[in-house]
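Thread: Newbie trying to understand structure tokens

Hi all, I'm a second-year student working on a class project, and my supervisor (Dr. K.) asked me to get a predicted structure for one chain before our next meeting. I've only ever worked with sequences, so writing a 3D structure as a token string is new to me. If someone could post the tokens and maybe explain what I'm looking at, I'd be very grateful. Here's the chain:
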Amino acid sequence: MDNTTLIQSLNKELELELPEKISFEEIKKELSSIINNLIQSDFQRLVFLLYRIDVNETKLKKLLKEHPEENAGNIITELIIERQQQKIKSRQQFNQQDENISDDEKW
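---
Reply by user tm_fold:
Sure, no problem. This is what the structure looks like when written as tokens:
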């Protein structure tokens, strides 16, 4: 998957302004910094964003509990990126299926 699609998705879902041309590692670093800032300054907004993105709450709690020494922002970032990649893949598969349907069969 190309970073551009991921960046566009993150910018839209999280209302960010990540540059279009950054590496995957830079995406993770930038997003982790934003998440850590939200943990410290606006936890309610973070909770809202995680809900809106549809990050698995059970998985998040489990990972945070299993890795208390790890930076919570990094853990949350990984889950956000994972979820966004799932959504992108889903959309691409749906669009491919939609292309294979004749115009007569479409609503």
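A couple of things are worth pointing out once you decode it. Residues 3-93 form one domain. Residues 4 and 20 are 6 Å apart (CA to CA). Feel free to ask follow-ups in this thread.
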